[in-house]
Inverse folding.
């Protein structure tokens, strides 16, 4: 074999469909030597196009879901804010009720002190009238009247009980004596 032999290296791999030169043929630089079978590349192209189409579809679905998710999230945020506002209003109402109840405690204590003072006065008056009656300085009617007054205070200030002996709420409101 005369001439220069140069090895040929392929830049890409593939199946050769047709050889365009003969053995030992002299070829100019840049001449096409073989044709590759395009089916392998067509399959790869179709796979890439299908993957691109699927990626675009997933992107479109994701864009559509963003709107739905954003709307749902906004609705849930609004609902949660409403729940927070309702809870805050309940706390505010409870604090107002507590403040009102606490404001009523001194008045109730003062009223209880007044009732106890009246009871003490009625007892002292009854004792005084008893002594006056025993010495003859007071009439029977005044002594009886003072006893009724004292018993009325006593009945109206003691805790009331029901038939089971359990305390009921409030002051006793028994029959007048």
């Amino acid at each position: 074999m005369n001439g220069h032999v140069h090895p040929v290296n392929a830049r890409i791999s593939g199946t050769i469909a047709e050889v365009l030169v003969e053995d030992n043929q002299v070829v100019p630089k840049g001449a096409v030597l073989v044709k590759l079978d395009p089916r392998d590349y067509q399959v790869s192209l179709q796979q890439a196009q299908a993957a691109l189409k699927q990626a675009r579809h997933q992107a479109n679905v994701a864009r559509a879901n963003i709107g739905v998710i954003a709307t749902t999230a906004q609705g849930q945020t609004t609902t949660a804010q409403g729940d927070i506002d309702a809870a805050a209003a309940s706390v505010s109402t409870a604090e107002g009720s507590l403040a009102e109840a606490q404001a009523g405690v001194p008045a109730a204590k003062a009223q209880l002190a007044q009732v106890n003072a009246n009871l003490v006065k009625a007892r002292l008056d009854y004792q005084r009238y008893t002594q006056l009656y025993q010495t003859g300085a007071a009439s029977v009617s005044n002594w009886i009247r003072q006893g009724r007054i004292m018993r009325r205070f006593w009945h109206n200030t003691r805790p009331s009980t029901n038939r089971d002996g359990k305390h009921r709420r409030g002051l006793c409101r028994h029959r007048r004596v």
Q: What stands out?
A: DSSP finds two helices and four strands in the chain. The two ends are 150 Å apart (CA to CA). The beta strands are 16-19, 34-36, 159-161, 167-171. Confidence is low (pLDDT under 50) at residues 169-177.
